[in-house]
Amino acid sequence: MLAVVFPGQGSQYVGMGKALYEKYASVRELFELAEEVCALPIKELCFEGPAGELTRTENLQPALTAVNLAVWRVLEEAGVKPAFLAGHSLGEYSALCAAGCLSVEDTFRLVKRRGEVMAQAAETAPGTMYAVIGLSRERLEEILSGISGQVFLANHNSPEQIVISGEQSATDEAAKKAKESGAKVVKLKVSGAFHSPLMTRAAEEFREALAEANFGLPRIPVVFNVSAKTEGDPEVIRKLMAEQILSPVRWVESVEFMYNNGVRIFIEAGPKRVLSGLINKILSDPEVLILQAEKPEEIEVVLSKVKEGG
After folding, report:
1. Which of 6, 104, 173, 264 falls between 20 and 30 A from 258, CA-CA?
2. Phi and psi torsions of 105, nearest 5°
3. Euclidean distance between the first and final Cα of the chain, in Å?
4. Is 195 an active-site residue?
5. Recorded E.C. number(s) (predicted)?
6. Residues 178 and 300 reside in one and the same domain
7. 179 with 39, same domain?
8. Which of 11, 89, 196, 254 does the annotation list as catalytic?
């Protein structure tokens, strides 16, 4: 059994998707549609940058989604049939599109609006995020309970990596105390306290865009960030996607859910290897095959490995 997973913010780089665009007509069609729906220079942002423009939340969300879906389009055309789909934060929209739950047009409309409301919320309720590496969840929760101000556990990415999110001073203080407790801390290059209650206004505004989108039944089960399990009811899915902006990403549990349901091949469809690295840390089974694909030659390797594994 295999699962296809899609990365979120942090996996981008200038030049992503260019080789795919040059090789496949279906990818060129996808990028043209993305530009038309979003009214953004998606190709230029992805292929040429500059990095500062690409990484702006309102630009990055549609740009990265275009690359994720381009990889998925090539995999799907080659006959890859996953048992499950999942995405990390923003990547969850690529999963919903791949599952047939959202149209490509609605997917791009939603990620564009999501990027806008998150960028606006970051300005009105500024905050920050840190990855904390090498500290138990229990110890980190203990540290957070002693901090005055708003700071929260945001993403449970791997057994060793948890992201905290919140107000600048409170989150800085929590990161300092985590470091004093022996953790490695890395400040994330984000503009706000995503996946925390500081995004409440963004979630409220985003609900309007979600209400206008047409959610259908997923043809392939999607494992959701908020619940770490599958959901088939389109109206429940709509609610989960509103909650996702302010809820923790339960990535460890999501990967374990897929593994416990028989998945032994994970394909990361999108740039870099962020999710591949996390999955490798979550699962200690040497029988699990973790593959990443974005460039045409990487996709060829994936297809040959899947054929061998199948």
Report:
1. 104
2. -60, -45
3. 8
4. yes
5. 2.3.1.39
6. no
7. no
8. 89
